C-alpha cells in the first residue's frame, strides 16, 4: 500500500481527497498545515506528497523543498487555488511531478498520482536490475588463476574505461558473453543498457529488423514502428555474438553502423545517431574468413580495435578444480542435495579431459553429476565425458548375444545431440551446424530422443 501525505488547510477538500484516495487503495496521512506536515515527514518520507501551496502557517513550496532534499524519489503533486505560470515553473524546477489548479477533477488527481507512482516504481526496479547486473557480472565472477586468464583480466581492466570497440575471440563455451558483460559492468556505461544479440541465430531479414528496427508498413507484419537493438543500447553497450556468422549483405549494413554510429530503420529514410560501445565476439578466425573472402576486411578492422582472446579450458587446467567446485556449490544449493565435494578420482578425470566444449561443457557435466549422485561425493562413474562415457558403452563394446547395434547407435546419437546442445548453449541452429545436419533433421532427432525441444 502506497503512503500519501496530503497537505491542505481546507477541511472539506482534505476530507474529500482522503476519502477518494483511500478508496483507490492508498494509505493517506492528512495534514492541515506546514507544521503538521513537517511532523509527519519527520516520521519518514511518504511515497507521494500532495500539497497545497498556500497554508496558514507556512509555504507548500518549502515542504516540496524539504521532501526533495531528504527523499528525492518521493512523488510530489502541487495543488493550489492561486495558480500562475511562474509558480508552476518554480514547482516543477524543484522536482514536482505535476501542478493542478483548483478546482480540479479528483479523477484527474488520481490518474496523475497513479501514473507518477508507476513511473517511479519502474525507475526503482530499473535501478535495482542495473545494480543486480553489476553485482552479477563484475570481474569477481570470472573465475581463473591461470596465467592466461590473469593476463586477459588485466587487459579487460585496461580496456573498460574507454569506448573502443572490442572483439572477443574464443572457442564455443569459453564464456565470451560473460567477459562482455563484465566489460560493460566495470565501464562508465554500466548504468545504461547491455543488449545482446546472437548474429548467427537469425536469418538476414529478421536480424536487420532486430538490429536496426523498422517503420510501420516496412513489411507484411510491421503493424507499428519498432526501434532496433542499436537504439535500445543507446548510451550503453551492444554485444554482437557470433559476428562471423553474418552474411556479406549484413556485413555491409553492420559496417555503416559501426563506422558512422548511425542506423536507419528498415523501410525508413531518417538516420538515427547512436551512442553505443560495440563488443563483438566470434568462435571462428575472422582473419581466415577474410582470406577466404567470406568476411569483409574493412569490417574486420573496425571490429578488431581491441582484441581480447578468452583461452580454452585445456589451456588453463589449473582453473578446472576452481570452476568445478563453483558449479558444484551452485547446483547443490539449487537442488537441495547433500554433496560435500568432488572425489579425488573424479577430479583426476576432470583434469585429464580435454574439454572440447570448454567451461559450458564442464558446467553441464557437473550438473548431471549432481543430479545422478547418491553418495556424499561426486564419483567418477557419475561423470559423462565425451563418447567414452556413453551409457552402457563398455558393456556394448563386446559383441555378445546382448549386443544391439541400433541401441548402440542410438546411444551415440543421443550423446552427440546433448553435447552439441551443450556447446551451443541450447541454440538449435548452432547445434545442427556443429553436427553437420539440417535444422529439420536436428528437430526430428531431438523429438525421437524425447529431448523436449521440438516445440521451442
Features:
elongated; alpha/beta; 19 helices; 4 domains; Helicase, Ruva Protein, domain 3; five-stranded parallel sheet; 18 strands; 456 residues; Rossmann fold; 15% strand
Description:
The chain is an alpha/beta fold and 456 residues long. The protein folds into 4 domains: 3-130, Rossmann fold (3-Layer(aba) Sandwich), CATH 3.40.50; 137-311, P-loop containing nucleotide triphosphate hydrolases (Rossmann fold, 3-Layer(aba) Sandwich); 314-385, Helicase, Ruva Protein, domain 3; 397-456, Homeodomain-like (Arc Repressor Mutant, subunit A, Orthogonal Bundle), CATH 1.10.10.60. The protein is 48% helix and 15% strand. The chain is built from 19 helices and 18 strands. A 5-stranded parallel beta sheet has the order 2-1-3-6-7, sandwiched between helices. A 5-stranded parallel beta sheet has the order 9-12-15-8-16. Strands 4-5 form a two-stranded antiparallel ribbon. Strand 13 (262-264) and strand 14 form a beta hairpin. Helix 13 packs across helix 15, helix 17 crosses helix 18 (428-435) and helix 18 packs across helix 19 (439-448). It is elongated, with a radius of gyration of 30 Å. Residues 387-397 have low confidence and may be disordered.
